[in-house]
Specification:
two-stranded antiparallel sheet; 4 helices; about 120 residues
């Protein structure tokens, strides 16, 4: 005799596993992030950083979200040989990957902030 199965889960089982975040400003939508920033930054530093964080939060919830979805649909591929049969072992990235790099490294200077002065008009390193 088989044991009776439990009833099916409630109404949440019919929902998608992950709601869409397209158009959501990740910085504004996360009150804990604002709190953490206020505990690790001096008030004048947070006041200077907040406009950049708001812009970055908007980009993350829109442009970056769309680019990431496109990049997920087109993962990197290995190009082992060129058209003449020579070994090249090149990783080929979809343009969405390069666009995400430009956002992070050129537009927001994320990797350079601690290494160069004046990134995004920020004084010092």
């Amino acid at each position: 005799m088989r044991p009776e199965l439990p009833p099916p889960p409630g109404p949440f089982a019919a929902q998608d596993g992950m709601p869409t975040t397209r158009g959501l400003n990740f910085y504004i939508a996360d009150p804990n992030l604002e709190f953490v920033c206020s505990t690790v930054m001096e008030p004048d530093v947070l006041a200077r950083a907040r406009p950049l964080l708001v812009v970055l939060g908007a980009v993350a919830g829109d442009e970056l979200d769309a680019l990431a979805a496109e990049a997920d649909r087109h993962p990197p591929t290995l190009r082992a040989y060129d058209e003449r049969g020579r070994r090249v072992d090149e990783v080929v990235f979809h343009p969405a990957y390069r666009a995400m790099e430009r956002l992070a490294f050129e537009r927001f200077g994320l990797a350079a902030m601690s290494h160069r002065e004046g990134v995004l008009g920020w004084p010092g390193r």
